C-alpha cells in the first residue's frame, strides 16, 4: 500500500512541476490541489485500514466505509478548492487524474 502512495505522490509532484512550467504558479498549485484531493484521503484510508487490520477488526464494512469517506473527502476538497481558490481547471484535473491512475503502475515496481 505504501508503494501506491509513493507512486501517487511522485506522479502528483511531476504533474505539479510540469504545470508550474507550463501555466505558472496557479497551474502548479491547482495540480497539487487536484492530486492532493485524492492522495490525502487515500492516506487516511490506508492508515485506518492498517489500524483495523492490526486490531483484528477489519471487515468488508470497514473497507466500504473507508472508500465512502475517501470519495466524499475528495469531492469536498475539490469543491472547497473551486470555491476559495482561483484554480486552473486543466491543471487540477490532470493532477487528480495522475493521482488516480498512478496505482495502475504499482505492479511494475518490485518490492
Structural notes for this entry:
It is a single chain. The relative contact order is 0.22. The radius of gyration is 15 Å and the shape is flat. The chain has helices spanning 2-22, 25-55, 60-84, 89-101. The protein has 4 helices and no strands. The longest helix has 31 residues, at 25-55. The chain is mainly alpha-helical. Helix 1 runs antiparallel to helix 2 and helix 1 (2-22) runs antiparallel to helix 4 (89-101).
Q: How does the SSE layout of this entry go?
A:
Layout: H1 2-22, H2 25-55, H3 60-84, H4 89-101
Helix pairs in contact: 1-2, 1-4, 2-3, 2-4
What are the defining features of this structure?
single chain, 111 residues, mainly alpha, 4 helices, 0% strand, flat
Name the assembly state. single chain
Kindly state the percentage of residues in helix.
over 70%
Structural class: mainly alpha
Number of helices: 4
Amount of beta strand: under 5%
Task: Give the overall form.
Answer: flat
Biggest β-sheet strands, sense, barrel: none
Q: Give helix and strand order, one letter per element, not per position.
A: HHHH
Number of strands: 0
Summarize the structure.
With 111 residues, this protein is mostly helical. It is 81% helix and 0% strand. It has helices at residues 2-22, 25-55, 60-84, 89-101.
Amino acid at each position: 500500500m505504501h508503494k501506491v502512495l509513493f507512486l501517487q505522490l511522485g506522479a502528483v509532484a511531476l504533474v505539479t512541476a510540469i504545470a508550474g512550467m507550463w501555466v505558472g504558479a496557479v497551474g502548479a498549485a491547482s495540480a497539487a490541489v487536484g492530486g492532493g484531493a485524492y492522495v490525502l484521503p487515500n492516506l487516511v484510508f490506508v492508515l485506518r485500514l492498517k489500524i483495523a487490520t492490526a486490531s483484528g477488526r477489519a471487515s468488508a464494512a470497514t473497507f466500504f466505509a473507508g472508500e465512502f469517506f475517501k470519495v466524499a473527502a475528495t469531492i469536498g476538497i475539490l469543491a472547497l478548492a473551486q470555491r476559495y481558490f482561483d484554480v486552473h481547471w486543466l491543471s487540477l484535473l490532470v493532477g487528480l487524474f495522475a493521482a488516480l491512475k498512478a496505482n495502475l503502475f504499482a505492479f511494475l515496481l518490485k518490492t
